[in-house]
Amino acid sequence: MSSLFERLKSDAAADWQAYVGHPFVLGLGDGTLPRPSFQHYLVQDYLFLIEFARAYAIGVYKAPNALEMRKASAGMHAILDETSLHLKLCAEWGLSQEAVENTAESRATIAYTRFVQEAGLRGDMLDLVVALSPCVVGYAEIGTALSLSGRGLDGENPYSAWIREYAGEGYQAVAEAGLAQIDRLAALYLTEARYPCLLEIFRQAVRLEGDFWQMGLDIAD
Length: 221
Prior knowledge:
Number of domains: 1
CATH topology: Heme Oxygenase, Chain A
Number of strands: 0
CATH architecture: Up-down Bundle
């Protein structure tokens, strides 16, 4: 049986490709992304992570058993730990912790994170992890693809460290765990009658991911 994620990705192929092949992503890969675009993205990604930690907290409450509670709790703590590392990365790009934490969320950040939270609040844990999956799994796919591109890991590419992070074994393991969780929850909750609703959640989340990339490009216009 194919995984639920692969089925969703196949049925939303056009939206998925627009996300993973977005001009922002291509700019990361060849090093041509304008510096202000990446700086703006970094700040908003920090704010994004804070709200995604809240989404995982919803997962703790919605979890159908102790195993999934532990997984959601671990995800929440991992994201909160990641915010500290993210602030260090921001500092390397000339962005102070005070400046980052005092920046207002962009409309793209609000739209995406609140959509994910609402999916979890209104539905069950399967709805939540489907809404989370374009981020969790998509970044792993993007990191791998860019690492294999011509300038992805080139020392002259200013974004090679970012690419290396998401192409690395640590993050790839996070994505694999996310895929396994989706299938565990699908075994509990998925029915064919329900699938169209899950596909719509997935499609919307993928489109919002694309909007998040576009936010970075728009700041340089």
